Amino acid sequence: MSSQIKQVDIAIIGTGTSGMGAYREARKVTDSIALIEGGEYGTTCARVGCMPSKLLIAPAEARHRAEVYEQFGLQGAIPEVDGSKVMQRVRDERDRFVSFVNEDVAEFDAKHKIKAYAKFVDDHTLALSNGDTIKADRIIIATGSRHNIPAFFNGAEDRLITNDDVFEWNELPKAVAVFGAGVIGLELGQALHRLGVNVHLFGAGDSVGPLSDPEVKNYALKTFKQEFSFHSSGEVKEIKRVNEGVQITFKSTPDADITIETFDYLLAATGRRANVDNIGLENTNLALDKRGVPLYNPLSMQCGDSHIFIAGDANADIPLLHEASDEGRLAGENAGRYPSVYRRARKVPLGVVFSDPQIATVGKSYRELDESGVDFAIGSVSFENQGRSRVMLVNKGLMRLYGDKDTGILLGGEMIGPGQEHLAHLLAWTIQMRMTVEDILQLPFYHPVIEEGLRTALRGLLQAMGMGPQPPLNCIDCGPGA
């Protein structure tokens, strides 16, 4: 079949979360669309990200809870792990989630869908891997991201894996070395440990997920190191494939003796990189940053003042599903109305690590505020003696909240503790509504709930801003142990 040239109003490269969102918005204004996908339809979240990882975390947490039975006065053995059944459920439920995404794509107009890889020839022209050419008035880049794997890891040879590979396991291995103490490394490393796998987690610079607040970060380091082998500032000397698996020679701390351990796999959880280095951006007039990512306006997703837009993981900004969804819709909306391009206020930043205790960040981070020179105050609470947390034996955690001393507005927070996925949402909503700490404290707090710990931190913050009294150590209206 001879190659064809197709002219469209809008071309969208990629059908992940942002690409699908862009398509739905673009479809509202035009029927002249090319939705281009070279790989599998679907999203990183459903296939290899947020959903399958939570499917692994769920049985790990259920088994771990059995370890505290005796503290409740309950007698019983810790359940044995049937790795094949654990992984079977992970794959089955993962496939179910993916099927929902595929069903959505199947409903898209068939004449819009093109199965091929795309590469820019010029600002308006895309060469497809099937030999065809697309000429588009506007183009949306939604090419997603891929694993960033240091060359040093190549010593593991065929035992080098990523989280994509984990969710294809038929059985749980005996030992895994996890490199990277970010969200993926923490979640998978702890989950595998709790399912009986010998896990060593290797980090760098004492980093823990997205935390930048030194007190919260140190609390997190101490907590995780008490549970499993976490080399947060270790030094790896050698990675070598041996008959038994992959042998790692390392120092757990700069001053420690050299240790040699052998693992079944080396799991690389060292971040992701935007898929923009192989789509021919050098053939366009777009300005690129040092990573090769087009410079764009995050309030409009427009690259410079051009007809090209970028959304989702491809812009290497905030690799989270809800952000990719928002960005995709915004890119599709503006591509549809171009050359009239509108800016939209973005939602308050919100991030959660589904470790145990959970980690969450919301609004402005400690690092952002510290570097910006904003005069901010801090209010904190420990969950170790928080009433409901202690009752449930989940009383590990520290929350630190930040407020503007001049306006009294809540700016952000970093935290580790029980139920932080829920507390962070409450905080994000109040920050987005630009509520003052004093106003937030007028909202209802039930007793006894973990949210009372949030109230304690807010009261401390109000006092630290000079806008309220010193909170009583054991306030009567809080109830015992609040």
Short overview:
The protein is built from 14 helices and 22 strands.
Question: Can you walk through the features of this model?
Answer:
With 482 residues, this protein is of the alpha/beta class. The chain has 3 domains: 5-147 and 273-337, FAD/NAD(P)-binding domain (3-Layer(bba) Sandwich); 151-271, FAD/NAD(P)-binding domain (3-Layer(bba) Sandwich), CATH 3.50.50; 350-478, Enolase-like, domain 1 (2-Layer Sandwich), CATH 3.30.390. The protein is 31% helix and 24% strand. It has helices spanning 17-26, 44-48, 50-65, 69-72, 83-106, 163-166, 183-194, 214-227, 321-337, 366-372, 387-391, 420-432, 437-440, 451-464, and strands spanning 5-13, 33-37, 113-115, 118-122, 125-128, 133-141, 145-147, 160-161, 175-179, 198-202, 229-231, 235-242, 245-251, 258-263, 265-268, 272-274, 308-310, 350-353, 358-363, 376-382, 398-404, 410-417. The strands form 5 sheets. Strands 1, 2, 3, 4, 5, 6 and 17 form a 7-stranded mixed sheet that branches. Helix 1 (17-26) runs parallel beside helix 9, helix 3 packs antiparallel against helix 5 and helix 3 runs parallel beside helix 7. Belongs to the class-I pyridine nucleotide-disulfide oxidoreductase family.
